[in-house]
Amino acid sequence: MKIMKFGGTSVGKPDRMHQVAQLITKDDSEPVIVVLSALSGTTNSLVAIGEAMAAGSRDQAKELIDKLEAHYQSFIKELVKTDKAYAKARSIVSEHFEFLNIILKISFSEALSKDILAQGELLSTKLFSVYLEEKGIDHMLLPALEFMTIDAQDEPQLSTIKVKLSRILQQNSNKKLFITQGYICRNSRGEVDNLKRGGSDYTASLVAAAVNASVCEIWTDIDGMHNNDPRIVKKTVPVEQLSFEEAAELAYFGAKILHPTCIWPAQQQKVPVKLLNTMQPEALGTTITQEAGSVGVKAVAAKDGIIVINIKSSRMLLAYGFLRKIFEVFEKYRTSIDMITTSEVAVSVTIDHGGNLTAIVKELEPFGTITTEDNHTIISVVGNEIAQTKHILSKLFEALTPIPVRMVSYGGSKHNVSMLVPSSYKTQTLQLLNKGLFGLE
Ligand code: ASP
Ligand code: MG
């Protein structure tokens, strides 16, 4: 089986949906499971609707619901041609917006907000199915809520997913094309839930692992993962091949193309992941497999919004157990640390969200003098065995002579060197690295 996942922009316009139908029917050598996101912008609107309801602003929520409904009404006019298909699409849109309007009248809860968020993927898959039917393309809708489950810690249950999904597929072994919702799932209480924003990639990877797919294709609007951020540097090139480890580092450290959590299921089952471009289906894109393909620098990525916390204490001198006590504070506030540097009397760590910063600083105070600095960016240089690549550090530092590098992390992973710079230097840093490491402007 093959998995093909299409993101919001790939289904965001009727034309694009038509194109997706072509892409998924091109090759019929093996059965395909298609995973769809919500139409672009929809999940954001649903979040806003939920927030308005939570704040008790029903009028505002109603206004947002009506606006979204109007969007879908005009979407379906271009999506299908026949009266029969149009009537079907209309009734789907009405059904889901009726549901939102009913929710508006019920008192708001966390569980309800998840129901609201699920409407996007339910709508996109059902409407796509109507279009396929109109075109005479045989397929089956696979309801994600019947097989995609998460446990009490919100972690997907791959073995359960596997059992449930296999059963459904076996019962429908005469079908060759399946359409399912990304992002949505059921939680341990049986309620509708989701895999967090951008979670459709995760769905695709989980489904790929569950059915041991031959490939998991992630279709977006860029031709794969690039060596640098195309919004910031003039010239970038797609990276043809990455290992799962390299891809995980890049995704985590800011390359927006793939959701960081989505790598492990495919990696575990050794299902190759391909990043492909709906606008340029023939482009090679990026293939992610067990093997890295080559040694050396592949790409740089940047992660913004980093906060540095410095802990300075003479008590640390020759002491043991000091770091444990510090780490415990972060554990208590469920805040993960990205980078760390130590000297004999000081430790600096970075975190990527300041939600619990005040509380963390307060609890760290007994250990020494605490200072914090916000507005930093982690620049990660990623590549297979990069730490063993000759002259990598001299090349890096030479390229970055004008940059006040605040921290360096080298040797933690064989595939990554990370540097922390003030965010105001991010653009310049990425440009200098593009020239210094890749010879590109
Ligand atoms: N629709 C969801 C979101 O926008 C999931 C996804 O697109 O991956 O976050
Ligand atoms: Mg996405």
From TrEMBL:
BP terms from Gene Ontology: homoserine biosynthetic process; lysine biosynthetic process via diaminopimelate; threonine biosynthetic process
GO molecular function, one term: aspartate kinase activity
EC number in record: 2.7.2.4
InterPro entries the UniProt entry points to: AceGlu_kinase-like_sf (IPR036393), ACT-like_dom_sf (IPR045865), ACT_Aspartokinase (IPR054352), Asp/Glu/Uridylate_kinase (IPR001048), Asp_kin_monofn (IPR005260), Asp_kinase (IPR001341), AsparK_Bifunc_asparK/hSer_DH (IPR042199), Aspartate_kinase_CS (IPR018042)
Chain ranges of the Aspartokinase ACT domain: 379-435
Involved pathway(s): Amino-acid biosynthesis; L-methionine biosynthesis via de novo pathway; L-homoserine from L-aspartate: step 1/3; Amino-acid biosynthesis; L-lysine biosynthesis via DAP pathway; (S)-tetrahydrodipicolinate from L-aspartate: step 1/4; Amino-acid biosynthesis; L-threonine biosynthesis; L-threonine from L-aspartate: step 1/5
EC class name: transferase
Residues engaged in binding substrate: 43, 121
Pfam families linked to this entry: AA_kinase (PF00696), ACT_9 (PF22468)
Catalysed transformations (reactions): L-aspartate + ATP = 4-phospho-L-aspartate + ADP
Protein name (Swiss-Prot/TrEMBL): Aspartokinase
